[in-house]
Amino acid sequence: MPQNSKWILMVLIGFASITIPLNALVLIADPYSQFSLPSKYTSGIYKKIRFSGPGLARNAKYEIAVLGASAARPYSPEIIAELTKKKAINLAIDGGTAFEQKLMAEAVLKQKPYVTIVWQQAWLIHKWPEKSTRLGTNNFPYELYTKNPLNIVKYLNNPKSIYLSINSLLNTIPQDFTKTLGVTPWEKRVEVDDLEKNVQYYKGVAYKKALLEHPIHKQNKFNPITFDRRFAANVTSVVTTAPDARFIFILPPYPSLMNDVFFKIFPNDINYITRLRSSLETLTRTYKNVTVIDFQDRSNFLQNKRMYKDLLHFKNSYASVLLEEVFSRSNMLRN
Asked: Does the record's keyword annotation contain Membrane (predicted)?
């Protein structure tokens, strides 16, 4: 055998001797639940729904899926099961853009075309361009959302997958690393009545400056044509391709202080809310499998300061109140 051929063979053997064990390690640990459900959620890493959500959507057993951003995290599967007698899963993504939520909805529907999707809509998610993610184009794990041979290879050889697999098997995932990934399980969030503190924070000069410099707020303008294009791409497109699914859209409550603080900084955001409500109402008129539950004009929610952690999030303890009305008005309550 020529010298060059021997050298190439040795390189290939060396490469295989490293990659095959690492691939097997990721396959066994499966840190993002791509092949099976975790036996138990001990590491906390599975709570990183942006990464593990597509796998959970494929492998978990459920009839109801919750989608949305961080404000939808309090809608726990346990509460939903108690109200509807159906298994549920919460796949809400902390800080998830409309595009990210669309990808999650598609992952759910590909596996379960007859599912009920409870999808909470916040106007902020529609301020992002229609194909934007919080992590940026290069860092978002697109390969986890579509299971095909090439994406499986990417998953098995991803350095982060390998790192997490090693630490998961050793059960030594560093706390600082999980914080970097933004792991904040909704079950363990401590509720503090900090609405007033949050309001003062929003009113602060430094925070106001930071908000104004944020990419989605920097151009504080509203364009109805742009909004309609984004809504059609990330919401309507999902509904039109899922005639056998049921969609329950929630417009969540916000405290009246939003008008005194946030909307004073960004007055055009009110246009987003108005347009979002109108767009959802159009869906209900067009598709029989769509229901919209709007909590945003309810005085009992607007004036109840004790209900909120901050301007954008209600407390976990109020989730059951909202969900009971959601499923009652959707004729899904079961005694």
From this structure: yes
Any domain includes 106: yes
Domain that holds residue 261: 58-135+183-329
Return the C-alpha torsion angle 67, 71, 75, 76, nearest 10: 90
Alpha helices in the chain (DSSP H): 3-29, 49-59, 77-84, 98-111, 149-157, 159-170, 175-180, 195-203, 205-213, 215-218, 224-231, 237-240, 257-260, 262-265, 269-286, 299-302, 319-329
Looking up tokens 């940026």 gives 136
User: 37-82 pLDDT, tens per residue?
Assistant: 765 543 334 457 888 888 888 888 899 999 999 899 999 999 999 9
Sheet holding 64-67, edge to edge: 88-90, 64-67, 116-120, 246-251, 290-294
In a domain? residue 237: yes
Considering its fold, how many domains does the chain have in total? 1
The CATH number of the domain holding residue 232 is 3.40.50.1110
